[in-house]
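Handout, section 4.2: multi-component inputs.
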Amino acid sequence: MKNPSYKKDQTGRQNRKPGRVRTVIWNTVKCQKWLSAGILCAVVGAVVVALLPPLILGKIVDTITAGRMVPFAIILLYFGMLALTGITESIRESLLTLFGQKITHALRSSLMEKFVSLTTENINRQEPGMLVSRFVGDVDTVENLFTFGIISMFADVCKIISILVVIWYQNRGLTLVLLMLLPILFVFTRQVQKNMLTAQIENRKAVGRASGHVPETLHNIRTIHCLAKERYMEERYDQYIGESYQAMERTNFYDAVYSPVILILNAVVVAIVMLLSATGNAKVLSLFGMSAGTAVAVMNYISQIFTPVESLGMEIQTIQSAIAGIHRINEFFELEEKKIRNLQEEQKDDIHSPFVEFEDVTFGYDEHMVLEHMNLKVEQGEQVTLSGRTGAGKSTIMKLLLGLYEPQQGQIFLQGIPVSAMRETGKRKLYGYVEQSFHIVPGTVRDQITLYDKTITDRQVQVAAELTGLKDTIESLEHGYDTECTPELFSQGQWQLLSIARAAVSEPKLLLLDEITANLDAETEQEVLQALKRVSENRTVISISHRNSAEMGRIVRLLGKI
Ligand code: ATP
Ligand code: MG
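Output:
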């Protein structure tokens, strides 16, 4: 009898909320309160401090033109302020970089957390290249959002506004000229940046094609010589480097034109304001009139105001690519996760329930139905072999039993508990899964058996190795169990034995064996089967085999869809 509450729980369970980028950023801000406060102070401080040196310089010039001595303290203050401007700006940049790194770290951790909790279907669907670009490229765009994007943009806007406000009090006419000129400057800068970016992307593509052409030529060199295609390959290479050269030329052109245009614009604004301030017209002077000191100060401000306008364009670009990156990361965060249920604590040894039970199970991968209304009972201590044609769904049964996939209909119980409710941490004590091929993990022979589980003792490792007949082979290695594993270290049969040792070391209640002798010769197969017999004693075993020689216990034949 199964506890009906398990079925209820299966429908009532909840998926964990996806950790969206915004949440990760907000949590980082909350965890890094001091850093966030420091950035805010540094941003505001850098804007305010940068306003002071031109004002002091103006005062110095006015004092000199009035024929008075400039106090040494004022000169010291001027240089002090210049130094302070540099210091606050570099503090701001350092704190922003630090903050960006914290965001990157938090995002990558959440992405990995998400990745390992995805459903098996979703993990299978991931394309490695796309996945890497989420973890690397997209996270970098979010880091850039903070280091070169949104905060710098805020700082630049503050800088532009504060300079305009200060100039307004010094020279209203100049403020009006700047208000007219800055939007034009911004549009021009943005246009140049867009063109440069397009040229840079084209260049990168052309360089990619050109660098791909070299290994391609090398790879096919015999075919090229046989078919006399040398000229063709040469011309194609010329075309790629020609495209790259043209794109580079365009980038260089914009780069070369932009700076002089800005310098000329700067000079023109200064010249216009100076000319107007020198006219005798009282009306014009009411707007443009100023002292020599003020003139020096405003010239200083004009060159200061051009830089943030130039930066704004790049910051918009950074923000745009960060938005696209955030969008892609959020899509990943929204993928379905494995459902977590905590029914392990409620596990009861129900003597009426079979050890394993498939109850009216229907399952398919997407549209492709593999099992339909399947029923299977395996009693504790029983040994069952699943046999059937290729593609009949034998390995699928194992995966369902391991809780990697969930049936679309029906339930699978292990000791009366739905397998999808098994806690991940308890699984190794429950299942020993031996696949057809062995998957090496980085590390030593011991690591292959323990899978880094520190609770498994050396004694247990030795017992498992002995059980599978590998003890002598391992001990004859120079470093024994501490030998670093490479694919050549063991033969295929030995790897298979190691795979059994890996499954057996945690003394699981249920052994699942998926065609583990399929690729072995008759002698090695016997060796592996002997090892299996020893490991299978007093255990429930479900195995898959195509060969009669490897069949164990009761045979269950699958006829395609069952
Ligand atoms: P074999 O004896 O060849 O190992 P099998 O009985 O173990 O065959 P399964 O591996 O269970 O067969 O596959 C059953 C069907 O499910 C096959 O048609 C296979 O194409 C399909 N299938 C298996 N794994 C997936 C998957 N991850 N995604 C989509 N379809 C799958
Ligand atoms: Mg199979």
